[in-house]
Each structure stands twice: as C-alpha cells, then as structure tokens.
Design a protein that fits this description.
Length: 770
C-alpha cells in the first residue's frame, strides 16, 4: 500500500510539473519577433531605420525617404540631422533602398549603394531632373508598408512595383514584383549618401561581369574619413541591356576614352555614377537581387554571397532572418501588464542588437583602422562603437545576455588599438575609421565591466596596457592638460567640466582592471586620477563649474545653460551629477543625503526655459522632464541616484514615470535618438527592475520592475526568473525583494546573483516602503 501511495505521489507530482511547464509555455511564446515594431522611433529624432537586417548584421537594407534638403550640396542643418538613418515617417516618397544605415545615432553617414526599381522612361535623377520634371522617386503609403524583424515591404505606387527586402549577415536580398513592361529596370545609384554633399564620394567603380553579375566598390569621405565598401550583385534574371551616367567631369587616358560614358561599356569609373539594368517583365514577374557587401574586396563580397544565400528562395531567407531574431529575442521572455508594453519591450531589445555590427568576411578578413587587411584569429570583428553612449547600459546588458559577442567586441577594440597610430582604444569608430566624436575614452569602461564580471577570455593584461596607453595620449582632446592640471582648464578646452568628469570616471575603470590583474602601482595612479572631479566642484555655488588654468572658477557662470558653460549636451544641473564611481562622496560634497534628494526633486520639477536648449539638436522637449533630459545619455543614471540618499522610493517613482512617458508603441515612441541602442538598453534594464549605474562594478541599483514576469535565458545554461507580486500600473513601489527565497535588505543586486539563475521575487505596493 505504501508503495502504491509513493508511486501515486510521483505520478501526481509529474502531472503538476507538466501542468506548470505547460502554463509557462502558454505565457512565454517563442515567436517574439512578432512583437517587434521597427517603426517605433522612425519619427522626428528617433533616428532608427525600419528596414531589414539580422542581429548585429553588416547589412542594414532600408528605404531612404525623400527630403530635398539631403541633396542640397554642402548644406547641413537640423532638417538634414533628422535623416541620420535615411528615413522619416512623415515622408511620402521613397528614392530607393540603401544597404548601410546607422540606428539611432546623433550624426549621419552611410546610406551606401542605393537600389531603386522603376518602370517607364529612363530617369536617373532622384528628385528633379534638369528639365525640372519628376525624378525616379516613388510615392508610397504607410497603409501599404510593412516592417518586421528581418523583413520590409512597401508598394512603390508610381511604378506599381511591390518591393520586399530581407537579409543575412552580409547579404541584402531584394525581391521586386513588376507589372508587365518592356521598360522595367533596376537602378543602382552610387551618388546617394546619407548626408550628401558634392565631395563625399572619392571614387566609384562598377564592373559588369556577365548578364547576371555586377561587382564594384565605392570610397567615401564622410564622417568616416576614408570608407570603402565593396559589393557583388547577382540578378535572378539576365538583364537585356545596361548603361550608366557619370556625374563628374573627370576624363581618362587610354582605351576608356574611346567609349561614350552612357554606352554598354562593362567597366564604369568616376566619382559619381548611376547605372541601370533593363528588363522585359511579365505581369507579376519577380526579379530578385542578392547584394553582398565586404570591406575587403569584390572577391570577398562574392564569397559572402555564396556562403550565405545558396539559392533564390526569398521566403526561406526571410524565415531564416526571422528565426535569428527569435533566437536572440528569446534570451529575455517577458509577461507585461499591458500588451502594448510587450511591443515596446521587444522593439527596445531589437534596437539593442542593431549595433555594433559584424565587420568581417566569412573567411575572417576585414579592413583595419590602418586600412590594411587583417584576419581575425580567435574572435569575430565588430564595428560601430558609439562608446560615449553605449558604455552606460548597452555593453553592461551584453554582459548578461550577449557575453560571447561582448567578448568579441572587446577583442575588436583591442585590435583597433593595435592598428591605431595613436595607440588608442576606439572613441567613436565605424567602418575602419575613428571619428573622435564626443569625450572620454569609454572603451576602458566596457573592458572593466567585462573584467569585473568575468566575461570573456580576452587578455586582461593586454587590455590594461591598452587602457593605460590610451589614457596617456597627451594630445587627445584636453587629456594633456587634464594630466598636468588635474582637471581640464576651461580656457584651454571646450566642454571642460564634462571632460574632467568623464575622464575621472574612465580612470577609475582602469584602476578596476589593474586591481583585477594585481597591478597595485597602476591601480594607485588611476585611483588618484579618478578623484580629479573634485577639482571642478565650486563650493561657493555648489555646482561642478568651469575652472581656468590659473586655478580660479570662471565668472558669469549659468548652471542652467547648455551652451558654452563647460558642458557638452547638458548643463551643471544634470551633467554636473556625473560621478558614478564615487556617488557617496558626491552626495556629501553637495550637501548630504537630504539636501541632495531635494536637489533631485528640483531637477525633475523645475521649468527649463527654451532658450537653454534652442540650439541643441540632441535635446528636445519630447525627452525632458523638468530639467532632467532623458532624451540624451549623460543623465541616464540620475533617476537611480535617490538610492544614494535613502529615498529609494523616489527612484522607483521616477523610473516608472520615465518608462511610461518617454517610451511608447508608436512611431514617436522614442524621446530622443536611440544612440546605437543605449536608450533602449536603459528601458530593458529598468523594465527588469535594476540598472548598471556604475559600469565597471559588479553592482546594479534597484529600481521598479515594469514586467509582470521575465525569464532571462543565460549563456551559461541557467535561467533567471524575475517575478512580481501585486504588479500593476499603480503599484510602483517595491516593498520587498527575495533572491532564491532569501530576503534582500539592500538597494542593489550583484552580477553573480544574476548569473547564478534562480528566482527574484519583487513584491509591489502602491505606497512607499517605511
């Protein structure tokens, strides 16, 4: 009898477990890509693109919408700035589909290799012809437009053509459904660039290999001062004829001069070229293009094409792209209070995986910073490091859900440093170029965060040496004066206070690397440097303030002004609170916990006059709460600073308010440009209930989780479940937290607690915890 009871109990328990697993499967679906809406952030200053790509893919194949200011040669203004990703939702015309695009950056470049299908008379000018007639653009309607993870579709109304796009890592796959016509064609515009100006193109070259294969390259000098993109195009159907037009006055000696530039000569060269390929099409006939990229050579592009798409099955490649997104998105499975929040969450997670991007061919060859060809050995090479933005939350997020990739990204940074004539780690790098954008040397933060959290197998001593060398390049952006004066003097460098604060933090991260590898002398040097922030704190006014080389603080200082007051993209009220590595000391310096908490209250509730932000492209009303600017990165840690004052509940209030008001499911669902995923990474962390206020430490500050439940599928094979009890829109306060059954009476969690897996249970309430 006892045996029967035991067996029955076992059977009953198995049944319970099966029911539990079935219920869990019902909650956590696997087709998570269906919740991604690439249109979120395509309006105004979100600066994201809606086109087709795969996670961290080299190809970002996306529509470019018409705005004539983009084609006014040499002009740069705020309207141009709106087109950093080549697309604005307000537009109603498309000029074609480009293969490289930034996602959510504060500067424009790329837009390489524009393809446009047309029907009818040959027109080679995109906007207006010399005769002032319509260019080759087409009208489109958002009602006939569809954007999903890895797929984009739109009807080109002027030509009755359905355009569909998908991609692999290195190949864009086009499918165009044509009407019946003897004047169907595909244009290849090698003139177009995002942020076009007349001298951006250095050289273009096109070679017709046969009637289905074209190869070539283009070199530009935009934000990336010397960028080469090689390509190979394979057509699913032979073209019946082809031609091109050259838009520059260059002449050539030898054989080429005997041919008119618009004849069917198989080699085309010049600064600015547009080519065309003609077809006869039946009603509903599909013409497909496989468009492969390489930074190395046309041969590399061909190898990439042959390796990644072996047939002409567009739907198969589309499904493979979707599957890749489902795999990456399933690293965090969530249940939300409202269904719309799931769309916001997974679109944000999607945005965190659009850069950095893969930057090597299938054989591991890539173009390095020195413009030579290298082969990645023991790592995969990546590019697009917007580090002033992404060290704050994006790379810390990778240290939880993308550890293998982040290891490769660190190794890519170390390779960059070896290839640099300056011996510097990347500052803001893309496409084998350093553009020196923004301040500080935040690759050290990315490295330190990985070191402290034991992520990756990169050489830590080599990483320390690279960091130290970077931190001692005296001619870099005020660094020599920073070392000499122990702050950046305002009369010797712009943005002096911001630079001092960021450099001091970066120096602290180098000390953390040194501590980890047992280099006590280097640790001591950089811990001392990490306190240089104290030298720009003005006790008289209570603000971080611009200081002159004679040791006096600058007069006529306005702490509200974002222009010329020693700060960049911020003011003393918000950027002046940037001492993440010594927050306790900063709070004490600024009057103690009670006074600092009130200061934060004022920051969120005061009114900021328009004059203070009028000339800032990166700061708009959409992203401001009082004087707190969520639409820009320097303040992303600020809502969590109440945790250092004893008023944790205020962090919980602010964080939930920001998630509710600064993010949304519509095209205007980003309150500022996404900055290569940083804005979205903030939302992912905050939704889960914690945030890396201090990258380079193993602690995460607690906030207020927005999810009802989340499962993080860790690369070490473990699962972390985050559950909330009494979760609702009103219950924003955390009354208790348990980790694997143990009550936690602190306002932070440790990285190892995440990596151990198990269950976090937040108990929520509508009243603050006593």
């Amino acid at each position: 009898m006892k045996k029967f009871l035991i067996v029955s109990s076992i059977v009953f328990c198995i049944g319970c477990n099966t029911q539990k697993e079935s219920a869990e499967e019902a909650v956590f679906e696997k087709e998570l890509s269906e919740h991604v809406n690439p249109m979120i952030g395509t309006s105004k200053m979100g600066h994201v693109f809606p086109g087709a790509t795969v996670p961290f893919g080299m190809v970002q194949l996306s529509p470019q919408t018409n705005f004539e200011v983009m084609f006014k040669e040499g002009k740069y203004n705020t309207k141009t700035y709106e087109y950093c990703a080549g697309y604005q939702y307000k537009d109603s015309t498309i000029i074609g589909f480009a293969h490289t695009n930034f996602s959510g950056t504060g500067h424009s470049d790329l837009g390489d290799l524009l393809v446009m299908p047309t029907v009818g008379k040959l027109i080679l000018d995109p906007i207006r012809t010399k005769e002032n007639t319509k260019g080759f653009y087409s009208k489109f309607s958002h009602d006939r437009e569809e954007a999903k993870a890895g797929y984009y579709k739109v009807d080109l109304e002027d030509y009755n053509i359905k355009a569909e796009l998908t991609a692999t890592e290195r190949v864009g796959f086009h499918q165009y459904t044509f009407p019946k016509s003897e004047e169907s064609r595909i244009l290849l515009d090698l003139v177009y660039n995002v942020y076009h100006h007349e001298n951006k193109n250095v050289w273009t070259f096109l070679r017709v290999e046969n009637d289905t294969l074209v190869t070539g390259y283009r070199q530009t000098k935009g934000w990336a001062r010397t960028k080469k993109v090689f390509f190979a195009i394979s057509f699913s159907k032979p073209f019946k004829s082809y031609g091109h037009k050259k838009y520059d006055q260059e002449t050539y000696d030898g054989f080429y001069r005997r041919f008119k530039q618009d004849e069917n000569f198989p080699e085309m060269a010049g600064k600015n070229i547009r080519a065309y390929f003609n077809f006869n099409t039946k009603e509903g006939e599909k013409i497909k293009l496989k468009f492969a990229l390489s930074s190395v050579s046309t041969d590399g592009a061909l190898k990439n094409m042959q390796a990644e798409i072996t047939d002409w099955d567009f739907d198969k490649t589309k499904k493979q792209a979707k599957d890749k997104w489902n795999k990456e998105l399933s690293k965090i499975e969530v249940e939300t209070i409202e269904e719309s929040q799931k769309e916001v969450f997974y679109t944000a997670l999607y945005h965190t995986m659009l850069s950095p991007i893969l930057y090597e061919d299938v054989d591991g060859n890539y173009r390095g910073l020195d413009q030579n060809i290298h082969n990645s050995k023991g790592f995969t090479n990546y590019t697009i490091f917007s580090l002033w933005d992404t060290y704050r939350a994006l790379h810390p997020l990778f240290n939880i859900i993308q550890q293998e990739r982040n290891n490769d990204m660190v190794k890519s940074m170390l390779a960059h440093q070896e290839e640099s004539v300056h011996n510097m780690l990347p500052i803001w790098s893309h496409y084998a170029n350093e553009n020196w954008c923004m301040i500080g040397y935040h690759a050290t933060s990315v490295i330190a965060d990985a070191v402290v959290k034991n992520v990756g197998d990169f050489d830590k001593k080599k990483a320390l040496l690279a960091s130290v060398e970077t931190a001692n390049v005296s001619y870099f952006d005020g660094l020599g004066d920073y070392i000499k004066y122990k702050y950046v003097p305002d009369d010797k460098s712009h943005s002096s206070v911001s630079k001092t604060l960021e450099l001091a933090y970066d120096d602290w991260t180098i000390a953390q690397i040194a501590n980890n590898v047992g280099d006590a002398s280097t640790e001591k040097v950089f811990l001392e440097r990490s306190e240089y922030y104290k030298n720009v704190f003005n006790k008289e006014n209570g603000y971080m303030s611009p200081k002159l080389s004679d040791g006096t603080f600058r007069k006529n200082f306005d702490p509200l002004d974002t222009h010329g007051q020693g700060f960049i993209e911020g003011n003393a009220w918000n950027y002046g609170l940037y001492v993440p590595h010594q927050l306790d000391k900063m709070v004490e310096m600024m009057g103690g916990k009670k006074r600092f908490s009130l200061r934060l209250d004022s920051l969120f509730t005061m009114e900021l006059d328009d004059k203070y932000i009028a000339k800032h492209e990166d700061i708009t009303r959409d992203g401001i709460i009082g004087n707190y600017v969520h639409g820009n990165e320097p303040g992303h840690h600020i809502p969590y600073l109440y945790n250092w004052t004893g008023d944790d509940y205020k962090t919980q209030e602010r964080v939930r308010m920001i998630m509710d008001t600064m993010y949304g499911p519509g095209v205007e669902g980003l309150c500022g440009n996404d900055d290569a995923g940083q804005m979205s990474a903030w939302y992912i962390f905050s939704s889960l209930g914690f945030y890396p206020v201090v990258p380079g430490s193993d602690k995460y500050a607690l906030g207020s989780p927005l999810v009802k439940k989340a499962i993080i599928n860790l690369e070490n094979g473990k699962k972390l479940t985050i559950s909330t009890e009494n979760q609702s829109k009103e219950n924003v306060y955390v009354s208790s937290l348990t980790i694997n059954g143990k009550r936690i009476d602190r306002n932070y969690i440790l990285h190892q607690e995440l990596m151990n897996g198990g269950e976090f249970i937040f108990t929520m309430s509508d009243t603050p915890k006593n």
